[in-house]
Amino acid sequence: MHGPFLSLLWMSSCALLCAVLAGCAGNAPTPRGEVKGAATTPAELAQSDMNRVATLAMHENLEGLFRLMDKLYRRNPAEWRKTSATSRDHAAEQVRTAILQRQPWAPLQGRRDIAAMGFALAPEFAGDRVAAFIHATADMIITAHGGKTEFFLLDGIDAQHLYNAARNVESAVWLLAQRRNAQGQPLLLADEIGPHGRNLSFEREFGKVIARLDLLAALTTEKYRRAAISYVQGIVGGTFLQFLPVR
In sequence order, which residues have a C-beta less than 8 Å from that of residue 18 and are 6 or more positions away? Predict the structure, then answer.
């Protein structure tokens, strides 16, 4: 009797173990990609660690704006149709090229930086508002970095300008959510909280841009603060931390 009972117990235990393992496998985290470093280039020999951080942050901020442009065009298809572009992707590529090549955007009528941002978010602006807003915001961020998108040993960045740029993006996000046209509709459809669900992806993407700007501003300030401290430490160390004779 013990033999059949033990066999049944063994089979039940195996079945339970298999069920547990299957459950664990089913609850395994879904892969979400992995961190990938950029390929090393000869230009990096002329970059300090801080230069490299600033370059990567700029690249990610611009890519974030391009993602926002695509999302805004998807929610506001009437905007790109105001232009001569043949498709949403075509319109986005034109804006991207203008930003990366530091070309002015004609509908902004010669305005750059914060003046362009204000005009792009004005109710009376009649052109492609998505293109104007993204181009103006990118131009403001690049201007805050001294007009550069890559940084090398002789380049300097003003921490206060970066901090101001972060606050400008915050203001733009607020205006985007609050301003209405003559018909009482949002200038651009972005985040949405309604009976059919919540879409806060725009806020998250803008938040990443703001966080990078703030972090780089803090790192830049810390860089100069630590340089001063290191200088004092060198003077103190040269006076008090000398080797003493032992014979």
Answer: none
